[in-house]
Amino acid sequence: MGAKKQVAAQSQQEFLRASMTELGMTRSAFAQRISVPVKTLDKWMAPANTTDFRNMPDVVWAYVREILEWDSKSV
């Protein structure tokens, strides 16, 4: 839970973009990797001030961080 507080300054959109870049994945591949429809990922990546924006559940933040951690260990 403490790790979430440390990255609170990073927006959801920034977090997802950085994660996709670090993993070298397209939106489609990343959506498939985290088991969500591309449309859901698009809503999470929408600017916060738009009507398309949806908050990403805490469990997804944790899941993506776990994927990044596993990926960094496999390199």
Task: Describe this entry's structure for a reader.
With 75 residues, this protein is an all-alpha fold. The protein has one domain (9-74). It is built from 5 helices and no strands. The protein has helices spanning 2-6, 12-23, 27-33, 38-45, 58-74. Helix 2 packs parallel to helix 5. The chain starts with a helix and ends with a helix. It comes from Paraburkholderia humisilvae. This is Aspartate carbamoyltransferase catalytic chain.
Which structural traits does this protein have?
75 residues; mainly alpha; Aspartate carbamoyltransferase catalytic chain; globular
Task: Please render the helix and strand layout as text.
Layout lengths: L1 H5 L5 H12 L3 H7 L4 H8 L12 H17 L1
